[in-house]
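Hi support team,

I submitted a single chain yesterday and got back a structure, but I'm not sure I'm reading the token output correctly. Could someone confirm the output below corresponds to the sequence I sent? I've pasted both exactly as they appear in my results page.

Thanks,
R.
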Amino acid sequence: MAKLETDDHVSHEMGLHTEQLTGRTQQRFFDLEESDNLLYPEAPDVDFNKRAEVDAAEMEISEINLKIRSLMAEGYGSIVIKNPLARHSLGVGILSRLNLTFEGSLGYFGVGLIDGPNVRVTGRVGWSCAENMMAGTVVVEKNAGSTFGAAIRGGDLVCKGDVGSRTGIDQKGGTIIVGGRTGAFSGFMMQRGRMVVLGDAGKNLGDSMYDGTIFVGGKIEDLGVDAVEGEMTELDKAWLERKLKMYGLEAPNGVENMTKIVAGKQLWNYDNLEPSEKKIVL
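Hi R., thanks for writing in. Yes, this is the structure output for that exact sequence:
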């Protein structure tokens, strides 16, 4: 099995490890041979070839979420939820591998706090879809509301349509892809990870971003505080082409014509403030 390299990984060349949060970073490299480290102790052993369908039309939210868990406990690895009817907080807190499909739309806080499943939503999603997502994939076929991918830490979160404002607010890792437009304050207080917007971006893009990268294929209404244009590299272009191809998406004008936005790093003063904050506390 392949071993992770820690010294010369291309992500360093792409500028993804530039932060200097001494003593704060949660970056860790795992040995893939130690597979126990990649699973939660209580994660059910599911078979992706074992498939179940649930008609949720007459079910309460808690019943639907409990039904998903009971099916996973029985070993079902592919679950289809029909008629979710835009209910809120569906598919949340799933911490293991699972192919989960919602045939319809979700309301607020759909598939939040997940770590591992591959989710597809054939309709739309409301506010805060995939908030605090740790790993896995979420693909939304239509549009999404505001705070799409808030505080996401890992995985791929994809909306093939338009999204609302504050997309990826407080993003700490992972990748967010928007096939259409994104609203104001997208990438606000971004700390890590990458965001790709194939359409236009609204006001204050990347406002107060600390690190991370935003790629935009359309027009940018204006940039937020400390967000600046960066140089597009060959690694960036190769990564964009590969990642977009995974989800059947293309940059309308080609990845070579996308705009790269990064942090100007004029707001890197948090660590300088830390000693005085500690002194006050002590």
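A quick pointer for reading it: The first strand starts at residue 47 and ends at 55. Let us know if anything else looks off.

Best,
Support desk
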